[in-house]
Fold this protein.
Amino acid sequence: MYGQKKSSEERVQRWFIIIGALLALFLLNASMNGELPGMLNFLKAPKVQLFTIVLTAILMEGFAFLLLGSCLSGMIEVFVPREILEKRFPRKSFPAAVAGSLLGLCFPVCSCGNIPLTRRLMKKGVPVAGAVSYLLAAPVINPVTIISTILAFPGTKIISLERTGMAFLVACACGIIFGRYDTAEILRDTSAEEVSCHHHSSSPRIIQALHHAEHDFFLTGKYFVLGAVTASLFQVCVPRTVLGSLGQNSVISILLLGILGMVFSLCSFADAFVASTFTAFPSTAKVVFMTAGPMVGISLIFLYMGTFKRKFSVRLIMLVVGIIFVLGLVRGIAGG
Amino acid sequence: MWKKEPFYRLLVLSAWFVFLLVMLFGGRYQTYIRKGYGVLLAGGLVILLALICTGARNVRDRSAHHLKYTTSLVFLILVFPILLTIAVRPGSLSTFAAASRGISTSLAGSDENLMDALQSQIESEGAFKKLNIKQIITIADREPDKIEGMQVSAEGFVYNQPAQPSGSFMLVRFLITCCAADATPLGVEVRSEETLQLPKDTWVRVQGTVKVENGKPVITQSGVTQVPKPSNAYLY
């Protein structure tokens, strides 16, 4: 197994060297022919500029929360005994799911930051129902997001209540459904971390915590970058103006804004203000936009797939999307 | 075993540390995220510094070479955004982003009695009150009688809408909540009797009289002066 990994790693490095060398030769040739300045003009193209700004913006803001989440995760691993979490957290699915959904009121970490935290909580004995519901609910059910939603819709404070309610229902439902899963069916292989954990067990505890934090950051960071790249591409290629007059039909508008929320992957503190600009759309569609993005945005999908096992990730994403759309359609048909 | 792995992890962490440090202390982070979020960057820098110190320990510790949970592709992915930003060196959001996102001429908010609240803060440029586009739009929506006929001075960049009547353009600025990803372009129509040949993305100061038409402000009888782009191009 180790021999296979080593040879595939060497193959990847060899390809990098070959591609890098070809690129360098290509650029050298272009430079000698005086073609380089013209070729580099594409860097000034509006789409490239916008892509770079959006990508850097998402990463700059998200990395801070990712680092914070990784740090908290490391601290929990080292300083919080497993017994405390096992004793204090409800064990049965339903109360665990409810408790997990409301935990974001105390620990308001951004959606990308709470993934390493959730992973750590699961490993530390928090029931799967509680961990899954926290994962989904925390980005929406927290004081900052609730207040920002109220501010974005001053004339209709009920929207904030609907958003919070929808997130609570989705998180609890998913927590209860996945509560029967074992942690081993959810978390990816952690043997590398266990090897390093054993190696560092004689270090001071704060060093151990930082070591875990570093591991979590690298584990989730690469997927966050890939997710941010995808979200940025969508932002460049899918103009918001495409919405046009599609808000007239409540079913289409709910589906459309739900997909847009997933594609734009906006921060849960800010998406309410973006949603408030969709004046042609019914309020239910805006609630779906504001719930889908922080739970199953494109960048989060990458993080889920990288942090959890593929089968679980796919089922989680499909279940969340399904419940959000069903709730949205029911509410829309009921007259929202 | 790839013995250089702890060193490359240290390199990635250091690259991000230097990048965020330059962005923070150069003020350039305001191109990407909200002004007050420098605190977030500072917090991230502190955590990165702690991770770098831990990483340096790993590099010195020979037996740490047993660790292997990242690949060269991962390193490339993690440094790619830094390399891209250095190569592209983007300015702030422009008319392309405005066209893509659609100009908003109205704004949600709870700024009641905004005019009274602003009274003590508004600066004047001669006979003109200095207001930004967000303030103009919000007051026109909530207290139109207080801004009708007011002489204002506002800055923004030129945006020429398709099928726009001659002698008018949209004065636009981006409103940011968290970061450039959520930035919404706010626009006010400007009408001027002068024949204007202003290319898009030109930053101008407009001085004129506000008229409210269907709840939307229009700046008329405008004098337009080209100005340099402000250091912080966004509104909050």
About this structure: The two ends of chain B are 51 Å apart (CA to CA). Chain B touches chain A through 71 residues (CB under 8 Å). The longest strand of chain B covers residues 203-213. The helical segments of chain B are 5-25, 38-60, 72-88, 95-101, 114-118, 133-142, 144-147.
